[in-house]
Amino acid sequence: xxxxxxxxxxxxxxxxxxxxxxxxxxxxxxxxxxxxxxxxxxxxxxxxxxxxxxxxxxxxxxxxxxxxxxxxxxxxxxxxxxxxxxxxxxxxxxxxxxxxxxxxxxxxxxxxxxxxxxxxxxxxxxxxxxxxx
Length: 133
Fold this sequence. Notes:
Helices cover 71% and strands 9% of the residues.
């Protein structure tokens, strides 16, 4: 039931964005901000937005790994994912852990959306739906 509810909320939010912003693709002009210069290393060509995206993704992955491996909340997340009932009996607020986990996932999805827009230069209401499934 929670998965169906989440899918329903996702479709509702997507259609709300469609009504508010329209169906047209929106340009996200990063060329004025960053420039169009490309670099190459041998046969590998990349632009500044692509480089920023790779660096940001690596930094976010490292931060998430360190957070989950070394913080108390990360330990609670691992415990809850392994056995929810046992984690609850050990005094872990399972509902809080789940809420924080969804918040972190949403924040990472937002960062991915910004990185997508940096590289491809456009945004639209349907861009994260398939990835969210």
